[in-house]
Amino acid sequence: MQRKIVQIPNPILRERSKPILRRDNALKRLMNDMEESNSAARGLGLAAVQIGHPVRLLHYDCAGRKGFMINPEILRLSQDMVKVDEGCLSIKGFFWEIERPSHVTVRWTEFDNTQHEEEFYGVFARLLQHEIDHMAGTLMVDYLSEEQYDGFERVFFGAGLTPPPQENTLTS
């Protein structure tokens, strides 16, 4: 079932997502809902929290690959940084040039508990960093310069945005 994508300033987007401990029919339904919601939004990826479920699950449809990552974690970030325009399904209509590592190594499990570890490059690496950030309560606006954020804040004046988490969320 297609779900509505949560938009800022909904405070659930600042919650830390919980690890998934059980593989059951409820998780299968959530995965199906995420796939339908991401497809309808024409997104490259979607974190479960973006449809109101703060659990460590992401759906991707990127670079010719489509699937899910359960409890993903970034193991390594490259030292090479790249600036690219980035958008977010939870912040409709805004795109900013965001600097991120060019490649990352990620570990995750699948529904059948198969564990994977892989290095990702380019847009796929960027997508995974973005979605894993969502699981830590970090939004792409947290990467903006003060000037960029001030302009964004003026648009959402009084929207009740909460400050970003204090720790480095890409490595946690």
Task: Produce a short descriptive summary.
With 172 residues, this protein is α+β, with helices and mostly antiparallel strands. Helix content is 24%, strand content 29%.
Describe the structure.
With 172 residues, the chain is an alpha+beta fold. It has a single domain, classed as Alpha-Beta Complex (Peptide Deformylase). 24% of the residues lie in helices and 29% in strands. The strands form two sheets. A five-stranded antiparallel sheet has the order 1-2-3-6-7. Strands 4-5 form a two-stranded antiparallel sheet. The protein is globular, with a radius of gyration of 15 Å.
Tally of structural domains: 1
Number of strands: 7
Q: Architecture, CATH level 2?
A: Alpha-Beta Complex
CATH overall fold name: Peptide Deformylase
- The N- to C-terminal Cα distance equals 31 Å
Largest sheet: 5 strands, antiparallel
Mean of residue pLDDT? 91
Structural class label: alpha+beta
Count every helix, treating DSSP H or I runs of 4 or more residues as helices: 3
Instruction: Summarize the helix and strand pattern as letters.
Output: HEEEEEEEHH
Give the strand order of the largest sheet, numbering strands 1, 2, ... along the chain. 1-2-3-6-7
- Radius of gyration from the alpha-carbon trace, in angstroms: 15 Å
**Can you identify the CATH superfamily?**
Peptide deformylase
Query: Based on CA inertia axes, which overall geometry fits?
Result: globular
Helix content: 10-25%
